[in-house]
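Thread title: Can someone regenerate the structure for this chain?

I was given the following input by a collaborator and told the matching structure tokens would be attached. They weren't. Posting the sequence so someone can regenerate them.
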Amino acid sequence: MSTLSEHLIEEIRELPAKYPQPRSAVMPALDLAQEEVGYLTPEAMSEVADALKLDPGYVEGVATFYTLFHLQPIGKQGRALFVRGGRVPGRVRVRAGDAARPPLREGPD
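Best answer:
Regenerated them for you:
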């Protein structure tokens, strides 16, 4: 069973014609695969390698080198939610200025 749709595999197969060297198509191909699946699974990377007729190790190397490619699912509750003041389960919510407050002391010194 294929991870990528047949339509996407055909689109990836057409990419090398747009570049001076066929290997130059690997990043756009990985981007398309990630867009369809949500992240790059080992199967998706293998299918990209097959479609481009490249070594799977080369494709995986590109995917692991660039941080714009995600090798694990990206949750809905990520950094953007945390920055906007949302709660991330299992995390303590810290308000602005909390870290600057001195700790409370109990009893005389």
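The mean pLDDT is 83.
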